[in-house]
């Protein structure tokens, strides 16, 4: 392994030098008390979730659950690979941000949500989050190709997809702008007393937007049921976190607002799921927001036009070979007795499903020109 | 709930109808909507405990509780962003931005989220919200407490922009705005909160209570968005105005004895283009007045529309009296303000063509 970028190189035990490694037996309590000799109860509360996660790191999945996680992650992977091909063929235009490598994050977190109750909002790398919901790949792919049958009639495109049915609030193309909306969704959950929470995703790049901290403050001040999820894939477009962030341990960034943080390995769906259960339970108990940092890695460029000059091929290859979330679970399935043929059959079925979505997306008609003027303003009230 | 829910029209005003100033009318509209619709929520800086710097929300938290009317941190982007999320979920937030000059940190949320959510979700999600904000000058606020940024919003498709000029209209328009399913920017001309300023700044200000348009019916009524008001009819000249400038234009035309038809636009988007077109085709002359800076101001849009639609009826070029292309000054406020002298000169010029 040739010398990779510092932060990414150290994944998935990424921060060995900078902070106490969660993997070590010592608890994160080992972090310096910053001059305080006695730790207060509040300080303890800030890291109690992380401690709970350390104590119970991996979700104990049934065979059926494990298989389901595998299928979902594989669907995202194959879907995204196909989207990349369609982009290359000119069938998808504009911007297209692939989720390859990060599959365990959306699948692990969203599998712990209560469907139809909780809300989810994310940024522009949103295909995986929709697929993790079980939304029909046909209408997602057709949105990427800008067709009438797309989930937003082709008017949103790759970055702007929504589903009322699943309480999925998009799909937002402005970096970080979805975070205050997530605060509003959480406020609405609380106001309606419906017991739901909002899962608000953003990236390591968006974590440097001011509005994120406005939302942290309001969420903590009003004790909102929200889980902030920083998907730290190591790079804000082409800028490594160390080049853009004074505090690269993003899970600590809620501390000033008394928001407990969790540092989670986002390359293992079972660790993600286990952490999600702890975080969601905390929020559902009315204890206010949680900030989760999901350490992950994207194999492909930021978008399709990314020349990839900011990291080495070896670094990417190393992640693919040694840290792949799908291979990890595939191996576990084999250990639990799944035969090679059975696993191949799953792969084949998923390839067929994605091929069908691509055909559908390619052959669906484009929107009627009259659609240009619809859905701008609500006509009557 | 006293008025029938089905009507869109304001009840008939009689001599006995009580009189309110604009703040009282706005406060009443908010109270009525809080009462009628449990999804209506008021949030903003100082709006709860304190009741707002201009007192527009005074007493509302006391009456409706802290979950309906609450204070926010000084985080304009966050306030508007949170309101978009609340609206998308099905609530009907009414955020206050304390001065229009403070709205810029929230511009990203208004332009990229509030205005566009409906389009990019193909109608699945909407962001019903009414951003109330005092705007305009005439109070020596200097460049950060006097601006009129309405044209920034009329330029954004997906947002409605409403500007009342009287207590009567403020109440009915605000109720319409809150019930509207689109995001609405509701700019309140703060110079006329307490009385209809006529631009003659050296004369004492007449309080609203003596003005005919301060008669505000009780209970619920709506003034539809997109309907202009003819302030006075005339044959010689059409004057297009909104907000504070309605009263300045009226006073100037009165003082000079000009037979002008003054049209208060009330909402810039949607725009009552029919009323404008009918009037200009009748008079053949058109003067546009606004306080905002001139270049790319809303007057430029109005001028273009009038020229496109009424060109062969015009007796004179369309003219504009506006703020200058400078920051809003502190000490030279009355030089900047498009007051009676400049409006009078423009009228003379347009009538002499």
UniProtKB/TrEMBL annotation, chain A:
It catalyses: N(6)-[(R)-lipoyl]-L-lysyl-[protein] + pyruvate + H(+) = N(6)-[(R)-S(8)-acetyldihydrolipoyl]-L-lysyl-[protein] + CO2. Residues 1-41, 305-324 are annotated as: Disordered. Its EC number is 1.2.4.1. Keywords: Oxidoreductase, Pyruvate, Thiamine pyrophosphate. Residues 1-32 have a biased composition (Low complexity). CDD domains: TPP_E1_PDC_ADC_BCADC. Residues 308-324 have a biased composition (Basic and acidic residues). GO terms for biological process: pyruvate decarboxylation to acetyl-CoA. Its cofactor is thiamine diphosphate. Gene3D superfamilies: 3.40.50.970. Residues 72-369 form the Dehydrogenase E1 component domain. Pfam families: E1_dh. GO terms for molecular function: pyruvate dehydrogenase (acetyl-transferring) activity. Heterodimer of an alpha and a beta chain. The pyruvate dehydrogenase complex catalyzes the overall conversion of pyruvate to acetyl-CoA and CO(2). It contains multiple copies of three enzymatic components: pyruvate dehydrogenase (E1), dihydrolipoamide acetyltransferase (E2) and lipoamide dehydrogenase (E3). This is Pyruvate dehydrogenase E1 component subunit alpha. The lineage of its organism: Bacteria, Pseudomonadati, Pseudomonadota, Alphaproteobacteria, Sphingomonadales.
From TrEMBL, chain B:
It comes from the Bacteria. Its cofactor is thiamine diphosphate. GO terms for biological process: branched-chain amino acid catabolic process; response to nutrient. SMART domains: Transket_pyr. Residues 20-195 form the Transketolase-like pyrimidine-binding domain. Coiled coil: none annotated. Its EC number is 1.2.4.4. It holds the Pfam family Transket_pyr. GO terms for molecular function: branched-chain 2-oxo acid dehydrogenase activity. Keywords: Oxidoreductase. PANTHER family: 2-OXOISOVALERATE DEHYDROGENASE SUBUNIT BETA, MITOCHONDRIAL, 2-OXOISOVALERATE DEHYDROGENASE SUBUNIT BETA-RELATED. This is 3-methyl-2-oxobutanoate dehydrogenase (2-methylpropanoyl-transferring). It comes from Allopontixanthobacter sediminis.
């Amino acid at each position: 392994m040739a010398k990779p970028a510092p932060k990414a190189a150290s994944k998935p035990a990424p921060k060995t030098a900078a902070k106490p490694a969660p993997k070590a037996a010592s608890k994160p309590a080992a972090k310096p008390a910053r001059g305080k000799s006695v730790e207060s109860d509040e300080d303890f509360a800030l890291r109690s979730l992380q401690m709970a996660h350390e104590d119970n790191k991996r979700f104990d999945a049934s065979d059926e659950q494990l298989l389901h996680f595998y299928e979902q992650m594989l669907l995202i992977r194959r879907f995204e690979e196909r989207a990349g091909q369609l982009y290359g063929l000119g069938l998808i235009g504009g911007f297209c941000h692939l989720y390859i490598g990060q599959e365990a994050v959306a699948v692990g977190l969203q599998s712990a949500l209560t469907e139809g109750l909780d809300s989810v909002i994310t940024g522009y790398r949103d295909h995986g989050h929709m697929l993790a919901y079980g939304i029909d790949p046909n209408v997602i792919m057709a949105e990427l190709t800008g067709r009438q049958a797309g989930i937003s009639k082709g008017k949103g495109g790759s970055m702007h997809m929504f589903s009322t049915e699943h309480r999925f609030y998009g799909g937002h193309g402005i970096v970080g702008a979805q975070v205050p909306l997530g605060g509003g969704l959480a406020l609405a959950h609380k106001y309606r007393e419906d017991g739901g929470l909002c899962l608000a995703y953003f990236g390591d790049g968006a974590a440097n937007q001011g509005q994120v901290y406005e939302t942290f403050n309001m969420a903590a001040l009003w004790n909102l049921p929200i889980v902030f999820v920083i998907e730290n894939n190591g790079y804000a477009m082409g800028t490594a976190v160390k080049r853009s962030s004074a505090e690269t341990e993003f899970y600590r960034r809620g501390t000033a607002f008394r928001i407990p943080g969790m540092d989670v390995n986002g390359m293992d769906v079972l660790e993600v799921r286990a952490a999600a259960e702890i975080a969601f339970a905390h929020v559902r108990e009315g204890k206010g927001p949680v900030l989760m940092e999901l350490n992950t890695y994207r194999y492909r460029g930021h978008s399709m036009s990314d020349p990839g000059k900011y990291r080495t091929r070896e670094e990417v290859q190393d992640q693919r070979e040694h840290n792949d979330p799908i291979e990890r679970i595939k191996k576990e399935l084999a250990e639990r007795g799944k035969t090679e043929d059975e696993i191949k059959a799953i792969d084949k079925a998923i390839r067929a499903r994605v091929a069908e979505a691509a055909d559908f997306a390619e052959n669906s008609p484009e929107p009627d020109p009259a659609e240009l003027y619809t859905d701008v303003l609500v006509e009557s009230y | 709930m006293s008025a029938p829910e089905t009507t869109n029209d304001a009840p008939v005003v009689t001599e006995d109808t009580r009189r309110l100033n604009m703040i009282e009318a706005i406060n009443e509209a908010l109270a009525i909507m809080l009462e009628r619709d449990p999804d209506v929520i008021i949030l903003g800086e100082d709006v709860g405990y304190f009741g707002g710097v201009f007192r527009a929300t005074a007493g509302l938290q006391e009456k409706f509780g802290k979950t309906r009317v609450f204070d926010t941190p000084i985080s304009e982007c966050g306030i508007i962003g949170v309101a978009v999320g609340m609206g998308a979920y099905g609530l009907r937030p009414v955020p206050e931005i304390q001065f229009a000059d403070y709205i810029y940190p929230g511009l990203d949320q208004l332009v990229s989220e509030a205005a566009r959510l409906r389009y990019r979700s193909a109608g699945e999600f909407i962001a019903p919200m009414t951003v109330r904000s005092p705007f305009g000058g005439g109070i020596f606020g200097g460049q950060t407490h006097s601006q009129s940024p309405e044209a920034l919003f009329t330029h954004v498709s997906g947002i409605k922009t409403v500007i009342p000029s009287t207590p009567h209209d403020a109440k009915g328009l605000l109720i319409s705005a809150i019930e509207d399913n689109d995001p609405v920017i509701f700019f309140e001309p703060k110079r006329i909160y307490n009385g209809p300023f006529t631009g003659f700044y050296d004369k004492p200000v007449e309080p609203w209570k003596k003005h005919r348009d301060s008669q505000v019916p009780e209970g619920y009524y709506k003034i539809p968005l997109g309907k202009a008001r003819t302030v006075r009819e005339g044959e010689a000249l059409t004057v297009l105005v909104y907000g504070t400038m309605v009263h300045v234009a009226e006073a100037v035309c009165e003082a000079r004895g000009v037979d002008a038809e003054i049209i208060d636009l009330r909402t810039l988007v949607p725009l009552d283009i029919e009323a404008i077109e009918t009037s200009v085709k009748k008079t053949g002359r058109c003067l546009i007045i606004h306080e905002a800076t001139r270049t790319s101001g809303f007057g430029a849009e109005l001028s273009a529309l009038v020229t496109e639609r009424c060109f062969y009826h015009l007796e004179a070029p369309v003219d504009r009296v506006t703020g200058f292309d400078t920051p809003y000054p502190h000490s030279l406020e009355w030089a900047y303000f498009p007051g009676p002298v400049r409006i009078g000169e423009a009228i003379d010029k347009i009538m002499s063509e």
